[in-house]
Amino acid sequence: MSTSEKLLDVQHVTVKFHIGGLLGGTFLTAVNDVSFSLESNKPEIFTLAGESGSGKTTLSRVLLRDLEPTAGRVLFEGRDVSTIRKRSEFIEFMKKVQPVFQNPFETFSPLRRVEAYLFDTANNFKMASNDRDAARVVDDALRNVGLSLDEVRQRYPHELSGGQIQRVSVARALISQPRLILADEPVSMVDASLRMEIVNLFRKLRDEKGVSVLYITHDLATAYYISDRIAIMLRGYIVEMGPVEDVLERPAHPYTQLLKESVPEPAPQKRETWARHIELGATEVKEYGRIGCKFAGRCPKVMDICREADPPNVQVGQQMVKCYLYSERGEKAAAEAQP
Amino acid sequence: MTLLSVRNLRAYYQTEAYGISRTVQAVDGISFDLFPNEIYGVAGESSCGKTTLIKVISGNIKHPLKVLEGSVIYNFNGYQVDMLQISEDELRRNVRWKQISYVMQGSMSVLNPVRKVIKTFEDIVRTHEGITDKKKFLEQTRAHINRLGLPTDVLNAYPHQLSGGMRQRVAIALATVFQPALIIADEPTTALDVVVQRGVLHMIKDIQAMSKNTVLLVTHDMAVHANVTDRMMIMYAGRIAEEAPTESIFNAPLHPYTQHLINSLPMIGEKTTRTSLGGSPPNLANPPGGCRFHPRCPHVMDECRTVVPDLVTVKERHRVACHLFKEDSV
Amino acid sequence: MIFLSYDSPYDPSKSFVVPWDLPPSWEHPFGTTSRGQDLFWWLTFAVRNSLYVGVVTAIISRVISILVGLTAGYRGGWIDRVLMAISDTFVVLPLLPILILLSFLLRESMNLLNLAIILGLFGWSFDARLIRSQVLSLRERSFTRTAVYSGTNSFWITIHEHLPFVLPIVFATTLNNLLWSMGMEVTLSVLGLSDLSTPTLGTALFWANQHGALVAGVWWWITAPALVTAVLFLGLYLLFTSINEYIDPRTRLRLIGG
Q1: pLDDT at A138
Q2: Annotation: CATH topology of C40-255
Q3: How far does the CA of residue C253 sit from the closest CA of chain A (Å)?
Q4: Using N-to-C axis directions, what is the helix angle for C219-247 and C39-75, rounded to 10°?
C-alpha cells in the first residue's frame, strides 16, 4: 500500500523532553516509537486512550504541528508535515486538520463573543467572499451541530452551557471542511446529560460528512461507544491497538486488562470484578525511565525477560499487542521458567 | 436513629456588585436523613447545588452564602448539634475532624508541602486532642496507617514524593484519625486515573466497613455511585429529584431525569445509540418555575410548569419529586 | 485646579505682582511667597505642569512596554531574549545618577517635554516584563490555540486575544509610572536640576528652600505644595483603582453576569 492512500500516517514518532537545568538534566520520553495510520478513503473514529502521563496529549500536539517530533515522521495526505514552512502551506494544512479542545470555557476567550471565532475561521480560510456569505457558512456549520447563528450571535462564552460551547467548538472546526478532526478529551468537562449529544455528533460527522476523527481520551466507555479502532497508550508506547470491540472486550495486554477492569460499570449488580483489591504504588513509579516493558513493575504476569528489553509488537488476531506473553521469545522464556 | 437530619434547607448566594444584585438559588428546599453505617451518595451535574449542600452541612457558611430557612441537626450518639446555631469555637473544638471530617478533590491543600506527612498528623492531633506522650502518638498513628493498609514509610515522606493516589489516601487517613462519625468525601477521585480511583474508593469502602460510620460521597460520576454507595440522591437544579437505594436508582429509576441519566451512560460492550436530553441545565440565578426540569422533560404536563412537585415516598425508602407519581399511586 | 490655571489673574513667570510674605487669607488662599507671587494661583500652574510630565512619561513608557511586552511574550524565542535583555539592562541602570548627568548635559534644552521623554524612555522596562509574563501564560491557554487554528495571524491574536487581558495591568502600572515620574521631577527640581522658571510642584519646593522659607517663618510656602502633592497623589490613586476595577476583565465578567 502506498502512503498516498493514507490520510494520516504516523511513522515511529518519538518525542523527548529535556527536563532539568541548562547543564545536565535528563530526557523524558513522552512519546516512544508510535506508529499508526488512518485510511484516506474510509473515514473512521480512531481513539488514542491512556491515563495521565501516557503521552496522548503530546502526540496530539505533534499531529497538530504544535511540536516537532524528536524522531519519526508524520505524513498527512502523503506529505511530511514538518516540511510545512510557509504560512500559506500551514493555512492549507489547518484547513484540513482541525482541533477541538478539552475545556469548553477555555476554548474561547471570555472577553470575546463566540461568533467572532466562527467568522474569523470562515474569512481566514477563504470559505466566504463577503460577510453575507460568511454568515451563511457559519450558520451551515452551526446547523450541523444542532445550533444556529441566531442562537449564538452576540453571546459570550459564559452565556452558553458547556455542552453548547463544545458544539460551537465543533462547528468552528467544521467551517473549513476538514478531513480530520483532533478531539482532545472533548467531553470530559461536559455534564453527563449533554455529553452524549457531542459524542453522537462525531459519529454523525464520520457517517454523513466523511470526516475522520482522532478521539483522545481516558474514558474507555465513550471510546468504546463511538470509535472503530483504538490504541491504548502507556508511558509513551502504544501497548495495544486494534478494532475497539476486540481490544476492549477481549483485551490481550495485561495493562489493558487492568484498565478495563478498573472502569466502574454503571450497574450495581456487577460490583464484584471492580471490587477486587489491587496494589497501588506508594510513590510515583519512575516508569518512564524503566528498561523493558513499562508495565513490568505492576504486571501480574511479569517475566524476567520483560525487565530486559522492550517487548516486540505481536499480532494477536486483529490486535497488535506489545507484550512478551504473545511472542516466541516470551513463550520460550516462560517454558524455561517452568521446570 | 438518624445521624443527620436536614429539613427544608434553603441556602442562596446573594451577591451585589455595582448596584446589580444576584441571587443564586443553589439549595432550594432539601430534606433528607443520614443513618449510621451507610455510604450515601449525592449525584448531580455541575452547579446543581451539591457543593453548596456540602458546605452547609459541614458548617462552612460564609458570605455570600446564606441559609434562609431549614434545619441541619446532627446526633452523634446523643450529642446533639444544630449546625446552623453552633458557635464557631465549639464547631472547631468538638465537631470538625472529630465527628465530621472532610476529604476533597485535591489533597495537597490538606498536606503541607514542605513538611513530612507525620508532622501534619502531629499538627492535627495536637490542635484537637493535644499530645501528651509523643511515643504513644507515633505508635497510634502507625497503627492507624497500617489498619488502612498503607505502608508506614509514607509517614516519613514529603507529600511531593508520593503519587497522586497515595496522597489522596494519606488525606483520607488524616481525615479518619479520630474515627469520625461522618466522612464527607467531595469528588475524592475526580482528577485521578481509573486504576488509582479504584484503589482510593476501595480504601473508603474498607474504612466504612471497619468503623461502621457514615460516608457521604459526592460525585458527578454515576458509575462510581453504582459501585460504592448504598443509598443515593439525584440532585437537579438545587432540589432533590429522586432518592433511593442505589440498586433501585439504577434498575428502576422513576424520575424522568434519573431515567435519562442512567440510560445515557455508555458501557463497554454496548454500542446501541445513547440519546441526550435537549436543552441545558437551568441557570440557578433565574430558574424556571414549577418543576425545574420541565423545560427538558419528555413527559411534561401542564401542572409541571407551575406547581413545584413534592418529594413523595412511593416505595419503601424510595422518594421522587415528579408529578407523574403521587404518594399512593405506586 | 488645573483648569483654574487658565483663568489665573497673575502670570506665573512674573514676580512681585502681589505683596510678599502674606499668610493665607481670603484674598490669597495659600498666602504669597517671598518673591511676591500668589501661591494658590502659582500652584495651579505647578499641578498642571507636573501632571503634564507625568502623563507624557506614562504614555511614552506605556506604548513601549505594551509593544515590547506583547511581542516578546507572543513571539518568544530569540526576539524574546533580545527584548528582555534590553529591558533588563534598563531595569538595572542606576537611574538617578544618569538623570542628574543628563540634566547637566542638557541644561540648556531641559524643558518639561524633554524631561518627560527622558523619563518615559527609562520607565518602561519593568512593566514590559510584567506584560510579557502575562502574555506567556495567555499563549498557553486554549483560546489562543483556537485562534491559531482559526487561521488568525499573530498580529490579530495579540490584539484580539491578549490585549484585553493586558489592559488592566497597563492601567495599574500607569498610576505607578505617573507617580514615579512626578516624584522624579520633584527630586530633580529640588536639586535645582530642571528648568526652574517653569512652575511645577518640584520647583515650588526648590524656590521655597532657596528663600529659606521655613527659617523665615513663611511656613505656608512649604506646606501648601506638600499638601497639594499629597492630595494629588491620593486622588490619582483613588481614580486609578476605580478605573482599574471597572476595566478588569474579572469585574467585567462578573458584571455581565458570569
Answers
A1: 92
A2: MetI-like fold (1.10.3720)
A3: 8
A4: 40
